[in-house]
Design goal:
about 250 residues, alpha+beta, 6-stranded mixed β-sheet
Length: about 250
């Protein structure tokens, strides 16, 4: 969202770089191959990376107009454009950014404590992505939450774990501290907040082993309850980001 805002004049480059400090103190960038490195004037993967600011200075020259979020998991790699080195690294990371108009792909990785390394791929063409209306995504998230909550209560996931409410509040607060552009639409922000809350619940339930699942069948039921909830969280986050990008980039038709 910050990249899209900067490309369309609603955020300064320094705002983008400052916002990224929430996720890591240092952000570096490399290119996936020699041709991309030469075109963008940044180092190739395996060489010494440079600050992410070096890529920002090149994006407008590449024709980039906006960005799209991808959140791939095994069995669901929508938005990555099929099998490729980009898709493989994005699947490993669980997240990626597709730049519209270039088209380029970015994948973040934890390179060291407090350091994120972004690898840039030349995608050749923009991958087709499913466009889910934010209202539909919000509705699905609410429905999945109700169903999962019932199953998890029945299985007693948190019964043997003390301080669950406090731990949940702490994790939600950490996720909710992300800085957003001033022009961020309220509905997108609300959906992201709800997705953060559900993600924290999902994380706690996944960590709680055996978490009240007294049999293998109960454990399977818990996994089945959590799976659609995770899918709904990813769909909601993508829809919220798409909604925000449309607001930040009113002239973008990608």
């Amino acid at each position: 969202m910050w990249i899209s805002g900067w490309l369309n004049g609603s955020a300064a480059a320094d705002d983008v770089l400052d916002a990224l400090q929430h996720w890591a103190e240092q952000h570096d960038v490399v290119a996936a191959d020699e041709a991309t490195a030469d075109a963008l004037e940044i180092p190739e993967r395996g060489d010494t990376p440079v600050p992410l600011a070096a890529l920002l200075t090149r994006l407008r020259q590449t024709g980039t107009t906006a960005a799209r979020l991808a959140l791939p998991v095994p069995g669901d790699v929508r938005g990555l454009g099929g099998r490729s080195s980009f898709a493989g690294l994005a699947l490993h990371a669980g997240e990626a950014v597709v730049l519209l108009g270039s088209p380029l792909g970015l994948v973040p990785e934890d390179a060291a404590d407090g350091v994120i390394l972004w690898t840039v791929f030349d995608l050749g063409e923009t991958p087709v992505a499913e466009q889910v209306p934010i209202g539909e995504a919000e509705h699905e998230l609410s429905g999945a939450t109700r169903v999962a909550a019932g199953v998890l209560t029945e299985l007693g996931v948190a019964k043997r774990r003390t301080g669950v409410r406090e731990e949940l509040e702490r994790r939600v607060a950490a996720r909710s501290g992300s800085p957003w552009p001033d022009a961020m639409p309220p509905r997108a922000l609300r959906v992201l907040q709800r997705a953060n809350e559900v993600s924290a619940i999902l994380e706690l339930a996944s960590e709680d082993e055996p978490g009240g699942a007294v049999s293998s069948s109960a454990a399977r039921r818990r996994a089945e309850a959590l799976r659609p909830l995770g899918d709904a969280v990813r769909t909601a986050r993508r829809a919220a980001v798409d909604e925000a990008v449309r607001t930040l980039c009113p002239s973008d038709q990608a």
